[in-house]
Amino acid sequence: MFYRPEDGHGLPHNPLNAIVTPRPIGWISTRSAAGINNLAPYSFCNLVAYTPPQVMFASTGLKPDQGNDKDSVANIRATGVFCVNIAGYDDRMALNASSATLPKEVDEFIHAGVDAVECDTIACPRVATAPAALECRMTRIVDLKGENNVLVIGEITGIHLRDDCLKDGRFDVLSFQPLARLGYRDFARVTDTFEMTRPDD
Fold first, then answer.
1. Which of 12, 63, 70, 199 is deepest in the core (most CB within 10 A)?
2. What domains can you pick out in the chain, each with its CATH number?
3. What order of strands is seen across the sheet that includes strand 54-60?
4. Reported pTM
């Protein structure tokens, strides 16, 4: 099968989300200028540089009560900061609950039953029980082609690692089984790993 995206795929469901998988999920926490906390998952999210350390996430669509943005992006535009929380398998139900489209006055931490704690380097909440959390200062918001598609890039200013996830000096992903986004309504969790040495190591 071959198709051009502008012509459509002719399938019952869009296969694109199922092609580029698995995708890390950034559980993005922000605070509005009015002081309301927000928490939402984004599956267009990744680490993009080591020095200085930087991450990105992309947002698509909008909310009627935020103009041309979703809550996360609107809050970042207003405050310049955000936190990327890493979600493990035990967080799956809360993460899903935080994906609900709610009025901007609603605190998703409360709605999803997630404990919030203040970040150390930025004025923003983070998920208290997250295996890891990356405190970020926004460096750029890039408008992408298409309606309401934006890319948010941030420099990491602080990193939290849960102590029980550190094993023999390494951050052990199997201890919390990170969630990944697949296509359609499918998700995955990391339950095993293997190691390969690069030829030039």
1. 70
2. 5-189 (2.30.110.10)
3. 37-42, 26-31, 81-86, 132-143, 149-161, 54-60, 45-49
4. 0.95
79 SS3 class: helix
Distance CA 68, CA 56 (A): 19
Which DSSP state fits 99? T
Round the average pLDDT of the chain to a whole number and report it.
Answer: 96
- CA dihedral for 97, 17, 66, 143, sign (positive or negative): positive
What is the pLDDT at residue 201? 84
Closest CA relative to residue 116, chosen from 18, 199, 177, 29: 29
d(CA 144, CA 148): 8
Please check whether residue 25 is in contact with residue 95, taking contact to mean a CB–CB distance below 8 angstroms.
yes
d(C-alpha 104, C-alpha 27), whole Å: 17
- CA atoms of 83 and 57, how far apart (whole Å): 11
Distance CA 33, CA 201 (A): 48
For residue 67, pLDDT over 90 is answered with: no
Residue 57, beta-bridge partner list: 45, 152
pLDDT score at 107:
97
Distance CA 153, CA 136 (A): 9
